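Worked example

This section walks through a single chain of length 151. The input is the sequence exactly as stored; nothing has been trimmed or padded.
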Amino acid sequence: MGAAYFYHLTRRPLADTLRMLLEKSLENGWRVAVRGRDTDGLAALDRALWLGPEAGFLPHGMAGGAHDADQPVLLTTGDAGNDANCVMSVHGADVSASEVAALDRVCVLFDGEDEAALNVARGQWKALKDAGASAQYWSEESGRWEKKAET
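Given that input, the structure is written out below as tokens.
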């Protein structure tokens, strides 16, 4: 049974935190689906991931191609099409307690400076907690990631 990790972004941009988490996931041998609410937001993340440091090439692709199933990291607005071990929710994309139970990890990344994003994340935390899912809340407020709560 997996767990949901909530990442409250206050210091680093989404793309930087996402890259760090994706690199760690790939080191663990996981396949990842990055789920967003719209293709424009995912396209911006796709560009940012391609423009990352040359030494840190991060293999990934946008959903809708002929090779979705082969992608180690797939950016999508829907279900994982790459047999993912981990789903990373960005821009308030939905996650479910059944996904938390079925996957190794579900990550929810949200902008701590955006009140609407905070409210969505709070709702997701409550829904997952009420469904009995394991969840952790991580904050970078101190300058490094620290676990602040766990259910």
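What to look for: The longest strand covers residues 3-9.
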